Amino acid sequence: MRIIAISALREFWEKHPIAEQPLKEWYVKTSRARWQSLNDMRADFNSVDYVGNQHYVFNIKGNDYRLVVAVKFTPCLVYIRFVGTHDEYDRINVSTI
Q1: Domain contains 95
Q2: Residue 56 resides in a domain
Q3: Would residue 41 count as lying in a domain?
Q4: If residue 56 lies in a helix (H) or strand (E), which one and from where to where?
Q5: In the chain, % of residues over pLDDT 70
Q6: How far apart are CA 50 and CA 43, in angstroms?
Q7: Residue whose C-alpha is closest to residue 26's, from 52, 55, 62
Q8: At what angle are helices 20-32 and 6-15 packed, to 10 degrees?
């Protein structure tokens, strides 16, 4: 998958250094994937959930952080829409960001 907006991950782990390694692991695994469906995503990440409007939520670092992406399966694109703490996540409309 081609991942768009990795700078969002970098900015987040600069503020939350403990999230750096788990986010890098997510990036490496995702960039090597060729997902065609949610089932393919769950084969790599069992904690991923579909929240509507082509948006998916990943639990990062044992559910300490949340990562929201929009996935376009046909062109193999993953757009990073949000990365944050649970408190920050609770304040967004995840399907429209």
Answers
A1: no
A2: yes
A3: yes
A4: strand 55-60
A5: 100
A6: 14
A7: 62
A8: 160
Asked whether 95 and 53 are in contact (CB, 8 A), the reply is yes
Number of domains in the chain: 1
Q: Which of 21, 35, 14, 22 has the alpha carbon at shortest distance from 78? A: 35
Residue 11 resides in a domain? yes
Residues spanned by the domain of 72: 2-89
Name the pTM for this structure: 0.93
Give pLDDT tens digits for 7-58.
Answer: 999 999 999 999 999 999 999 999 999 999 999 999 999 989 999 999 999 9
Contacts of residue 57, Cβ cutoff 8 Å, sequence gap at least 6: 48, 49, 51, 66, 67, 68, 89, 94
